[in-house]
Amino acid sequence: MSTAPAPRAGTEAALLADGTTVRIRTITADDRKAVLGLYTTGLSDESRRMRFFGVSRTAPRTATDRLCGPPRDGLLTLGAWAGDELVGEADCELLDEPPQTAELALVVADRWHHRGVATLLLEHLIHAARQRGVRFFEADALTGNRSVHKVFADLGLPVRRRYEQGEVRVRVPLDESDEHYREAVDERGRRADVASLAALLRPASVAVVGVSRREGSVGRAVLDRIRNGGFTGPAWAVNPAADTIAGEPAYPSVGALPGVPDLAVLAVPAAAVPAVAEECGRAGVRALLVLTAGLGAEQSGQLLDSCRRHSMRLVGPNSLGIAHTDPAVRLDAEFGGAFPLPGTAGVAVQSGGVGIALLERLAWLGVGVSGFVSLGDKYDVSGNDLLRWWEQDGRTDLALLHLESFGNPRAFARTARRVTRRMPVLTVDAGRSEAGRRGAASHTAAAATPTVVRETLFRQAGITATRGIDELVATAGLLHAQPLPAPRGAIAVVSNAGGIGILAADACAEAGLELPELPAELARLLPPGAGVRNPVDTTAAVLPAELTLFLRALEREEAVDAILVCLVPTALGTAQGRDPLRALLEGPASRPVPLAAVLLDQQVPIRYLACADGGVLPAYSDVAAAARALAHARDRARLLAEPPSPEAEPPGCDRAVARSLVDGYLDAHPEGGWPDPLTTADLLESYGLPLITSVWARDEHTAVVTAAGLGRLGHEGKAVLKAYWPGQVHKSEAGAVRTGLAGESEVRSTYREFTRSFGARLAGAVVQPMAAPGVELLAGVVQDRVFGPLVVLGAGGTATEVLADRTARLAPLTERDLTTMVTDLRTEPLLAGHGGAPPVDLAAVRSVLARLSRLATDFPELVEADLNPVIARPDGAVCVDARIRLEPRPSYDPYLRRLRRPAPVAAPGRHGR
Ligand code: ADP
Ligand code: MG
After folding, report:
1. CA–CA separation, 278 vs 306, rounded Å?
2. Ligand nearest to the CA of 730
3. Which residues are registered as beta bridge partners of 371?
4. What SS3 state is found at 610?
5. Is the distance from CB of 238 to CB of 250 less than 8 angstroms?
6. Probe residue for ligand 1, chosen from 880, 883, 884 as the CB with the greatest number of ligand atoms within 8 Å
């Protein structure tokens, strides 16, 4: 039974300030009745006067005609629908050619005022107008029209006003202070998101639909758990075929319940999901948790459409459930693991099986959970939503994520960058190997993303990415129990068995931790024969009291930021209460520097040692696990030590020139392609990228004349000739590059050689002055369809592939990214001035990166750029070879407030475990 019409193409769903979902789309001729209704019954006389600047009876009809006429190029319209009601409209007329300014009009139905409809419509209209090249919105408003003035004031864009006889002319530049605007949009998005999630994450009442009388069915199991788990509100059962279930009344439908549940849990067969979801929506349910798996594409589309039309947030399908330990809620709506201990860790997983494993390990360790969400196929609610919720729930101080795919990684990274400053955000980097990626694709119907891009995302967002569940728990266990080390992260390794100490020291070094030298006089605190070169060997004879004193002395050492104590039980020790472990158990957990233990006789990967002060110390069975956890803690300390870095904003980037070059090329090559060297140079130079002078020579004579002129500018008076033909890839390999040409005859004979070798293919040659030698670098950018532009810096020139020395960051780059990209390179010593050579102009290298980042961010059509080499020298950097690829790509604003689109592909199979 399908009730919902298919959603129209181009429809976006988004949240109002109070969390209500509205759908936004272009207004068409079919909407005439709705628009006229909005202008007449939707508005009071006063509102109508504000909108139409008077009381004309015909104005609403004329305005309706304008919006609902045949589509025009010069008119952009957007309507916001709540359910089937048109609640607001925003439109603009593009005034000049090319459109620079657009005249804006905006109206919201009276009873929908103060819910953010106008602001949301404006954000979407700004997005559409920017794509059309509009740079200013202008609007007239009556001075008394306070709500319109407030909308403009709060928008986050600089608004200029001019007052004239009771009217205000408002002018809003659309291309200024992007970051400020994005921040304002983000803040609104965050609030709306949190408001919309309350029904899901703090429900006052719950219904389970699809509860059979049979114990052990999914619906029944979840209902029992909700009731037995002490849920603080009513939990109703819906089953058309039963009057009572487990001794309590059951209801035939959601509509027949004694109240409207905030949250409905769906455990019905896939075929029934669309109809039940629609029924829930009609009844006024605010959130759905869909446990059912195996929905077909059509069922998925219908499910999501019902959620959007009826303003319900959705977890799943294919979810294992959710749990909240907040005593005010106490909701255990999941099937699988045990109800988690109350605590402060927020857990969100895509795979239910991973979720259960994670909850079990946390419970075993004694780390409590604030909330658990099994996201399943993630049609709607995603990791981003959870981060935003935990950020403000007042309970969560540790976020644990297991994500196999990203819907909107740029929005996720933006949220994570903020949240990681408040709490550790840990993730398992899933799908690292090719095999892992295949698994991810078939498992949750989401194409996993390539490793480098994902790692880069995690690093830039400050997320602690671990290699598996065990490493995640090992690291969470440390971060939860111990303070962070100082950012330097220098480790002192102490053991009562020399061999173990050496293994631990190796593991620390492999994890990238530094082991400082320790003062020799510390040895006097230990038994004879002890060694205090780091790793410290206390000998097996060490007494608990001696170890206690020694650790205390170590903690006071300036060189030490963290301590790793590795203990092996000895016959000597366990006898007569001389076990050195007592030094840890009888000491405090709270110490001046963090401490972790490795106990070689321990059976589990990590457990907590209860200490004298009531705190705990993490104890590991494996030195490598402990070392990696400490390295993650050090990385987090470094993140927090650095202030957030602003986005790099290179001066002198001419967007208008670049736009016309890109559009010009794509008009002539609708499929996209590699522009010729001169178009390439024009585009790169419009963003201030330093290209060497290149002149195009179509024939031998031009080549000779040009080379004579350019050669004079070149290093040692020499010129370079490069043969060109469309579609060429590596020029040197093909014999198409000749450097160091001096004099007319060399140039002439080189051109003749080109003609002989390349024949009819040869389109001409590029003539350049010879650049002075320097360090050859590769700088480039690739657009990832999902993650956006990735900027790459590496060792360049003809040895690029051999050296494979590269680093990457997702654009837009921050100022710090510019610096760390350079220091990431193994080649860095060459740049810093190796063997007495003067250092190269690093500011010039950073400027290249910043400009590439900006260009690729502004132009998603730039799908590839390869500047190789950029020759870096003490007096600057210059690129002698650039290739770019342009493709038609709609510009996509990852920060536009919108919910996920309908029709994700359904996952085959049932819950993956
Ligand atoms: P391709 O990368 O297609 O083989 P390039 O234009 O990068 O061709 O040239 C190959 C190499 O030649 C460069 O790595 C650089 O070492 C050298 N080279 C090219 N153009 C110049 C120039 N104008 N000045 C100095 N060296 C150059
Ligand atoms: Mg090259």
Report:
1. 5
2. 1
3. 324, 346
4. strand
5. yes
6. 880
- Own/partner contacts of 85-88, CB < 8 Å, gap of 24 or more, are 85/34, 85/109, 86/31, 86/34, 86/35, 86/37, 86/38, 86/42, 87/22, 87/38, 87/42, 87/112, 87/117, 88/38, 88/112, 88/117, 88/118, 88/121
CA angle 411, 417, 420 (to 5 degrees): 130
Q: Which amino acid is at 563?
A: I
- Best residue among 676, 715, 747, 798 to mutate for probing ligand 1's pocket (most ligand atoms within 8 Å of CB) is 798
In sequence order, what are the residues at sequence separation of 6 or more whose Cβ sits closer than 8 angstroms to the Cβ of residue 756? none
Pocket residues: Cβ below 6 A from ligand 1 = 692, 720, 722, 730-732, 737, 739, 768, 770-771, 776, 797-798, 868-869, 880-881
Say how far apart CA 849 and CA 821 lie, in whole Å. Answer: 9
Q: How far apart are CA 82 and CA 21, in angstroms?
A: 7
- pLDDT confidence tier of residue 700, bands split at 50, 70 and 90: very high
Ramachandran region, residue 318 (left: φ > 0; alpha: ψ -120 to 50; beta: rest): left
pLDDT at position 856, please?
A: 94
In whole angstroms, give the CA distance from residue 175 to residue 53. Answer: 29
pLDDT tens profile 747-806: 999 999 999 999 999 999 999 999 999 999 999 998 887 888 989 999 887 666 666 788
**Which of the four pLDDT bands, split at 50, 70 and 90, describes residue 540?**
very high
Whether 345 has a pLDDT exceeding 70, the answer reads yes
Distance 70 CA to ligand 1 centre (A): 55
Confirm if 507 and 626 have CB atoms less than 8 A apart.
yes
Three-state secondary structure call for residue 269: coil
Check: pTM over 0.70? Answer yes or no: yes
List the residue whose alpha carbon is closest to atom 7 of ligand 1.
Answer: 881
Query: Which residues are CB-contacts of 784 (< 8 A; sequence separation ≥ 6)?
Result: 449, 450, 453, 790
**Ligand minimally distant from the alpha carbon of residue 737:** 1
Report yes or no: 348 and 375 within 8 Å, Cβ to Cβ.
Answer: yes
SS3 808: strand
Ligand 1 centre to CA of 732 (Å) is 8
How far does the centroid of ligand 2 lie from the alpha carbon of residue 865, in Å? 12
Distance of CA 590 to the CA centre of its chain: 35
Atom number in ligand 1 closest to CA 720 = 23
Q: Whose CA is closest to 813, among 423, 407, 459, 426?
A: 459
**In whole angstroms, what is the distance from residue 713 CA to residue 499 CA?**
65
E-strand ranges in 197-293 read: 206-209, 235-238, 244-245, 248-251, 263-266, 287-290
The token duo for 268 is 């019905």
- Asked whether 653 and 865 are in contact (CB, 8 A), the reply is no
- pLDDT value of position 176: 61
| Alpha-carbon gap, residue 254 to 264, rounded angstroms | 9
Do 630 and 495 contact (CB within 8 A), yes or no? no
Q: What are phi and psi of 468, to 5 degrees?
A: -175, 180
- The answer to whether the beta carbons of residues 778 and 866 sit under 8 Å apart is yes
Three-state secondary structure call for residue 313: strand
Q: At what angle do helices 623-641 and 469-481 cross, to 10 degrees?
A: 60
**Is the bond preceding 409 in cis, omega lying within 30 degrees of 0?**
no
Q: Which atom of ligand 1 is nearest to the CA of 772?
A: 25
pLDDT band at 266 (very low <50, low <70, confident <90, very high): very high
User: How many CA atoms lie less than 13 Å away from 493 in the CB half-sphere?
Assistant: 28
Distance of CA 630 to CAs 123, 487, 493, Å?
A: 44, 11, 12
pLDDT at 431: 63
DSSP β-bridge partners for residue 673: 886
Chain-centre distance for alpha carbon 172: 29
